[in-house]
Amino acid sequence: MENYQTNLLILAHEETDMARFLKDYAQMDKTRAGKMMASVSKVLAYTAHQRLALRPPLIRLNNEIETFRHRAVTDTLSTVKRMETARTEYRGSILWLKDASTQLDPEKQLEKFRRVQSQVKQTKGEYDRLKNDVIEKIDLLTASRCNMYSYALAT
């Protein structure tokens, strides 16, 4: 983006210089070619002005995108990572439940089995909560990105 901004400024400066050059020579040349040079110099000056007017909205859009990327995307990424950790814990607790159920001794191991069942329910609840958070954040991220671009294009 920085290179684009720099090249935009350089191009606008070159167009302005070319417009001045053509204007100066158009004043000396009173033929039809002089009139054409004057017209082209006006057009070049106008395009240079428009190119420079393009710069502030581009800078603002770039800043908004960077802010969006650093805040919203980073927040969503951390939620996804927490959800993946919860999923791993849930899968581990299911394997633990499977192992406890195969080694079930009704008199001695029933309390352990219930504890494992409780752990599975707890990790499942945490996983489901984080999964819903991730879905909501991704939907919100998509909508806010669309709104950001829509607002940037409207102004």
UniProtKB/TrEMBL annotation:
<dbReference type="GO" id="GO:0051049">
    <property type="term" value="P:regulation of transport"/>
</dbReference>
<dbReference type="InterPro" id="IPR024114">
    <property type="entry name" value="Islet_autoAg_Ica1/Ica1-like"/>
</dbReference>
<dbReference type="GO" id="GO:0005794">
    <property type="term" value="C:Golgi apparatus"/>
</dbReference>
<protein>
    <recommendedName>
        <fullName>AH domain-containing protein</fullName>
    </recommendedName>
</protein>
<feature type="domain" description="AH">
    <location>
        <begin position="1"/>
        <end position="155"/>
    </location>
</feature>
<dbReference type="InterPro" id="IPR027267">
    <property type="entry name" value="AH/BAR_dom_sf"/>
</dbReference>
<dbReference type="InterPro" id="IPR010504">
    <property type="entry name" value="AH_dom"/>
</dbReference>
<dbReference type="GO" id="GO:0019904">
    <property type="term" value="F:protein domain specific binding"/>
</dbReference>
<dbReference type="Pfam" id="PF06456">
    <property type="entry name" value="Arfaptin"/>
</dbReference>
